[in-house]
């Protein structure tokens, strides 16, 4: 059960995460990683890994509505803190 925190806008990171992630993992988009929301949904849907994004970071980039339409759950900083507590491992990309 790993929380994969993607903060870089490099598309090859999504490929690496999709090779390592499992259904029990979650993917979190923050900072410039928010720009990868379409790539993430296409790559990670096959393994059924939930994709989350920090709401404030999506709003700052004007991507909130589009990301929500793609099925990405927007969460707050408090919810993110609870996620890190819930997952025994986290990896930042």
Uncertain ranges = none
Question: If you compute it from the alpha carbons, what radius of gyration comes out, rounded to the nearest whole angstrom?
Answer: 12 Å
What is the number of domains? 1
The 3D shape can be described as: globular
Helical residue percent band: 40-55%
Strand order, main sheet: write it out. 4-3-2-1-5
Average pLDDT confidence is: 93
Count the DSSP helices: 5
Distance between the termini: 16 Å
Number of E strands: 5
Query: What fraction of residues sit in β-strands?
Result: 15-25%
What would you say the CATH architecture is? 3-Layer(aba) Sandwich
CATH superfamily: DsrEFH-like
Largest sheet: 5 strands, parallel
- Helix/strand-derived category reads alpha/beta
The CATH C-level class name: Alpha Beta
Subunit organisation of the chains: single chain
CATH topology: Hypothetical Protein Ychn, Chain: A
Order of helices and strands: EHEHEHHEHE
How would you explain this protein's 3D organization?
The two termini are 16 Å apart. The chain has one domain: DsrEFH-like (Hypothetical Protein Ychn, Chain: A, 3-Layer(aba) Sandwich), CATH 3.40.1260. The chain is α/β, with parallel strands linked by helices. It has five helices and five strands. Helix content is 42%, strand content 22%. α1 (12-20) runs parallel beside α2 (37-44). The chain has a five-stranded parallel β-sheet. The relative contact order is 0.25.
């Amino acid at each position: 059960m790993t929380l994969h925190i993607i903060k870089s806008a490099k598309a090859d990171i999504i490929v690496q995460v999709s090779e390592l992630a499992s259904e029990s993992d979650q993917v979190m988009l923050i900072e410039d990683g928010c720009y990868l929301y379409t790539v993430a949904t296409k790559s990670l849907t096959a393994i059924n890994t939930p994709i989350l994004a920090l709401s404030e970071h999506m709003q700052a980039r004007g991507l909130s509505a589009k990301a929500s339409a793609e099925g990405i759950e927007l969460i707050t900083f408090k919810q993110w803190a609870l996620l890190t507590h819930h997952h025994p491992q986290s990896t930042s990309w």
